[in-house]
Amino acid sequence: MLTESHQLSVDRCQDLSVEARLSGSIPPAPFFLTTDLDERHRLYGELSRSGPVHRVVLPHGEWAWLVVRYEQARAALTDPRLAKTGPPFAAELDPALRCAINSNMLNVDLPEHGRLRRLVAAAFTRRRVERLAPRIQQLTDELLDPLVARAADSSFDLVAEFAYPLPVAVICELLGVPESGREKFREWSFADVNASVIGVEAYAEAATAFVEYLRDLIARKRREPADDLTSALVGARDGSDSLTEDELTSMIYLLLVAGHETTVNLIANGVYMLLRRPGAWAVLGAEPERVPSAVEELLRIDGPVQTSTLRIAVETFEFAGVTIKEGDTVLVGLLAANRDTTTRPDAEELDLTRSPNQHVAFGHGIHLCLGAPLARLEAQAAFTGLLARFPGLRTAVSPHEIVAEPGLLMNALRALPVTTRPA
Ligand code: HEM
């Protein structure tokens, strides 16, 4: 049940003045702040059953409309009356910094979006992704092999030892980021996806350091182009068009952040889900050919991304029974929409053979995830590698010790201790 103060944070903020909305006097909606993944899903489920669209308070105190049912989510994600606005606090950043991190396709609408996506797609090709497959396999093996003995003896944190380093290595190799710079990413990238929780100052500080690093990387690739995506983006052309310096910086910023934060969660949340459903790990281990369809189901049922990025209404209009006013902020609850039982009565159930499996884990419409083929490739290698090496895997701690990150954007576990030692 939503408590009274939660209900306030979900429904009554429409009565508040702008000052009250931003003053922190109403607590953010509880599904953002909870550290319990099951609780997050339970609260979203309640909200989705009670209606398709709700007003909610975001972690940084602003309020927004949140769309929590599947059909309405897809409609909102393709509605031209909802334009992209920058991430939380974008307007408060120094303009030079803002341009260096936000001039990418995720933050703009048509026709600008089409221009940027075409330029990036010319460099980030299917062939480039497919070429990565053997390297992804090798990285998976290198990370997992040393963990076999440790899991049998004691335990290891699946997030820190595998789910995180694999996508970081893949995206860094794809972009040609040298190993020496990588340890900084966790901090910078965490700040980016958690801006709504950590506040504008910490966010701006991390973004400034990140941009400095990227400018240096781009300058090096200009001097010495290599066979990597950063060099390809530097040289990307569409007729006479090319990416400006800010577009290049912010595109690489986006690829580095979106390219790993999400995939980490797909692997960690997916393993956690499989280990908690009786028999699911063993069934999949016995039939690894089902891994691709299992990955789709894990994306759907406990996806890496909680909400879409922010949209803003460019006119006043009626939507799913509410009046969205010009200037209102709108968010799509991807997690909630994927488990919408009003559309699919069995949406809360894990079905590793579900087909067709429609979901909005990668978004929908023109901003549909550009990295989805890469994410699927990584996740399939990760699950296949884990299932083959750790048939007896189980969580090493009780469920209440497994902590989810509070936040607006991501649906992430902080750690996932696992073991193969008999209980
Ligand atoms: C399981 C992993 C992933 C998930 C769940 C995911 C999810 C998403 C979602 C929901 C969006 C749309 C956001 C919105 O409309 O507000 C998006 C966009 C995007 N993602 Fe991903 N993503 C994943 C992996 C990746 C990877 C590996 C990359 C890059 C290598 C990537 C790059 C992008 C880019 C560039 C966009 C912007 C596309 C556009 O605006 O046209 N993502 N992603």
TrEMBL record:
It comes from the Bacteria. The keyword Heme applies. Keywords: Heme, Iron, Metal-binding, Monooxygenase, Oxidoreductase. Gene3D superfamilies: Cytochrome P450 (1.10.630.10). InterPro entries: Cyt_P450, Cyt_P450_B, Cyt_P450_CS, Cyt_P450_sf. Belongs to the cytochrome P450 family. This is Cytochrome P450. The lineage of its organism: Bacteria, Bacillati, Actinomycetota, Actinomycetes, Pseudonocardiales.
